[in-house]
Amino acid sequence: MRDLYQGQRAMRQMRRAAMARGVIAVLDIGTSKMSCMVLQFDGPGQFREEDGVGPMAGQSNFRVIGAATTQSRGMRFGEIGTMAETERAVRTVVSAAQKRAGVRVDHVIACLSGARPASYGLAGEIPLASGKCAEHDVAAVLAACNVPDFGRGREVLHAQPVNFAIDGRSGLADPRDHVGNRLSVDMHALTIDGDAAGNLVHCIRRCDLELAGVASAAYVAGRAALVEDEQELGGACIDMGGGVTGVSIFVKKHMIFADAVRMGGELVTQDITRGLRVPTTVAEWLKTRHGGIEATGRDDREMIEVGGETGDWEHDRRTVSRADLIGIMRPRVEEILDEVRVVLDAAGFEHMPSRQIVLTGGGSQIPGLETLAARILGQNVRIGRPLRINGLAQEMTTPGHAATVGLALFAAHPQDEWWDFEMPLESHGVRSLRRAVRWFRANW
Known about the structure:
It is a single chain. The chain is of the alpha+beta class. The chain has a domain of 76 residues: Dna Ligase, domain 1 (2-Layer Sandwich). It contains 14 helices and 18 strands. The chain has a 5-stranded mixed beta sheet with strand order 3-2-1-6-11, sandwiched between helices. It has a 5-stranded mixed beta sheet with strand order 14-13-12-17-18, sandwiched between helices. Strands 7-10-8-9 form a 4-stranded antiparallel beta sheet. The protein is globular. The two termini are 15 Å apart. The C terminus is likely disordered.
């Protein structure tokens, strides 16, 4: 039965070994851009076995010693579409980050924004034979969780205990050494499409790298963009990427829900391309330099010179008003936010103690988005920049790099997952989760 979670445990051990040697890379493979950061750690001695339960097990100090960003290739809706093109882009960005860091890295931790994520809430309960909770009881209650059939081709990406209770005393972050008769747990499981995840493993290996961990982009973006109070009291992170808009909800410093809307900034660019009959590069420039979604009276008078398809500037030169540009962008942004609202409603976000919404990702930088989002999603909306970490370059502090920074936090401060515990071999829960983690076992 030990092989049930051997793949994830192998990646976690590989991450620890790489960090003990001093360096590891994190890789955000997005639809429109790829970012890589090389992290340097303090060295061995950072991890203790007694850190097994808690919101941030195995903490370590680190700093960024090299970073690079490049345009994505071969990606579609946050998933690998053309393997060879994605491989070239990964090699390019990792090589550039290594060059700036002045070191070679062999292990990377990557995040995935697509793959159709789906959340499940699991629960388990066991008697405490000794009248006090011990380490093996924590493993046993996790293994006792009833695991549903996630569906064909679905694989578990995250499986995190989010709440422990002993005899009804809920809200325990670490139940060990607490006296009581019954131990229960609530666990959040996030599943993704197995083929998309398998393609990521294959791509990393084709780049002569070892995969030391995989995370949800929605999860790590929330780790970076939500401040401590928002993660504690209840907050949602909306990560607006190029091909996918990720949604994650946190409470008590744990992610309890994640989903993704298969729409992003690239659709806005395509609308501009078609609406104004300009090349994609010009449309992207218009969106980032002159775009917006809140029109004013002077926008009709603000004229923007653009070219056309032939490359002959004199022949193609014409002007468009900013009001026309806003008229194209706003309906698509409204559609994306409407879909996000549907996801939040389905998750029961309105019942959270605090309903703070944080917009991050490259798409969140459109002028006027905060005001529109407040009307569609609720009043408590802000734009979220990633937390500052040691050595982070100024250009990496924008909302567009929230997932990359969050991935660094995920590498250095991992939260406990189901496979971090020694599961009892006779547990029914272990047999149930066997199907859920078969992809990781098959790839390691």
